[in-house]
Design goal:
Blueprint lengths: L14 E4 L5 E6 L4 E8 L13 E7 L2 E12 L9 E7 L8 E9 L8 E7 L8
Antiparallel strand pairs: 1-2, 1-8, 2-3, 3-4, 4-5, 5-6, 6-7, 7-8
Length: 131
């Protein structure tokens, strides 16, 4: 994207990179917030319990990283990407007006067991039930 007579506008993309070990790092930037986060496999995760988060989410700050949320591995149920895995996660901090609910969809799948998988991190306004 360019502005007439100006330098190109660089669009920052929100990403999450998960390594072969299942841990990763990502970022999310909006007009009001810019966060860097770490994904850590949850050592207490129970695959048979859908309420058990697959990952713990840590925000990186000036004083280091601190646990600020959790992520769940989900599966697309409909459409052309049916069966694809994605992450649904939430992070919160006293500096936020409300918790930040994000989703990470696969962009580039690992080609072999030593590769990383790259995800696009997106925010969508929560759905409101019809009155």
């Amino acid at each position: 994207m360019t502005r007439q007579g100006k330098e190109p506008v660089i669009m920052k993309t929100n990403r999450l990179i998960i390594g072969a070990d299942g841990n990763g790092e990502g970022n999310y930037t909006s007009l009001r917030q810019s966060i860097t986060f770490l994904f850590e496999k949850n050592p207490d995760h129970k695959a048979t319990d859908s309420n058990s988060p697959s990952h713990l989410v840590h925000l990186k700050g000036n004083g280091g990283a601190f646990e600020a949320g959790a992520a769940w591995t989900k599966t697309v149920q409909e459409g052309p990407n049916r069966g694809a895995k994605f992450f649904s996660f939430s992070v919160d901090d006293p500096s936020f007006d409300t918790p930040l609910n994000l989703t990470a969809f696969v962009l580039v799948k690992a080609k072999d067991k030593d590769d990383c998988t790259e995800y696009e991190v997106v925010w969508r306004r929560p759905r409101r039930d019809a009155a």
